[in-house]
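USER:
I wish I could look at a protein chain and see how it folds. I am handing you a single protein, as its sequence and its fold in token form. As I understand it, each token names a local backbone shape. I hope you can help me see how the letters and the tokens relate. The protein I mean follows directly.
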Amino acid sequence: MFSSKLEKRRKVRRFALLIAATVLVVCLVLIAVVAVQGFDLLGAAEADRMPMVFAVLGALAGLPLVTLIAYAAARIYGRVTMR
């Protein structure tokens, strides 16, 4: 139904979404693991937890940017190799 060029673009978009979703999930898991370990360590030392909270929030705030960069890089790679 669609031309082969449009089909390739659709495949590149799907692949880029798959990469972005994978980056998002992996980063969320890594942030969660580091946060749990960090809070456990701070709890054992009875230290102030606010710097760790700010670090976790900073990592979560930067996550959409990393995901967007991964998506854009996959799209650019797909366009370059499609020619």
